[in-house]
Each structure stands twice: as C-alpha cells, then as structure tokens.
Amino acid sequence: MGFSISPYLIAALVAWVVAQGLKYIIASIKAKNLSSNKRQLYLSGGMPSAHSATVIALLVVVGLRDGIGSGLFGLAALFAAIVMYDAVMVRRSSGEQGTAIIALIREQKSRVPLPRAAKGHTPIEVVVGVVIGFIVGIIVYYSTLQVN
After folding, report:
1. Does the residue 76 lie in any domain?
2. What is the DSSP letter of 123?
3. CA separation, residue 20 to residues 7, 26, 38, 52, 124 (Å)
4. Per-residue model confidence (pLDDT) at position 6
5. Residue 37 CB neighbour total at 10 angstroms
6. Residues 6+ apart with CB under 8 A from 117
C-alpha cells in the first residue's frame, strides 16, 4: 500500500490556490503593480471567490466519486450553498457596514481604533469561483482515478 492524498482535499486545495492566484493577478493588473498586492493572496473578497471555488471543487469530486444520490453529496451541496450564500449576503453586507463605520470614524476624527472591514463577494465573483471550482473538480477527479 502506498501513500495517497484524498482527492477531496486535493480538489479543495487546488481550487483555493488557483482562485487566490487569479485574485492576486487581477488585483495586480488593476493596480498596475505586481508587488503591492501580495495581501490579495490571503484576504477575503474580490474576484474570484476562492470560497466558492473551494466548496464547488469539493462538491464535484464528491458527486463524481460517490454519486449525486449519496449522503455525502447532499452534505457537500448544503455546505457549498451555505458558504456561497454567506459570501454574497452576510460577509458582503458586514463588509459594507465596516467600510461605512471606518468612514464615519475618519470623518469625525475620532480616536477610536479603526476596525478591520472584511469583504464579501458580489454575485459575479461567486459565479466565477463556481466555474473555477467546477473545472478544478473535474480535472482532479480524472487525474486521481485509479487504473486497475
């Protein structure tokens, strides 16, 4: 028996790396500077959604390996739906509120420490993340098939 890594984990990790890498590239192109946007490698929010890419890649591998009728697929689908809903509705809203609070603190010249405003995602950022996750999931599934 040899050492093997779970294709479920491989799919999630690869999708996250691809999405975060694309996020860095997109932010760098917008800023016209490659070195100033290293924070994009680990910050939330932005194009594309790494959260969505990760959970969809996992969902695709679960569906292809275990079947869409399996309990594991149902669990993965529910998990993906919650993560994507949260990215667009909850985190996006709290990020906008955080930005407004920061603006108010600055406007009032208050000594209150500025809070960190985590960003969520727009629907298109989530959709692009879904497409990335779908592609990565399929690639990982077929590249990890065992040949008998």
Report:
1. yes
2. H
3. 20, 10, 10, 11, 16
4. 93
5. 19
6. 95, 97, 98, 99, 101, 102
CA distances from 123 to 6, 34, 71, 115, 129 (A): 30, 26, 28, 25, 10
Global confidence as pTM: 0.81
Query: What is the model's pLDDT at position 84?
Result: 94
In angstroms, the CA 89 to CA 109 distance is 30
What's the whole-number average pLDDT of the chain?
86
Q: Domains in the chain: how many in total?
A: 1
Quick check: is 54 in a domain? yes
> What is the rounded distance in angstroms from the CA atom of residue 64 to the CA atom of residue 19?
22
Q: Residue 125, CB half-sphere, CA atoms under 13 Å: how many? A: 23
| Parent domain of 35 | 7-143
Q: What is the DSSP letter of 49?
A: -
Residue 46 domain-assigned?
A: yes
Give the mean model confidence (pLDDT) for residues 59-79. 97
Q: Which of 19-23, 31-35, 106-110, 133-137 has the least mean pLDDT?
A: 31-35
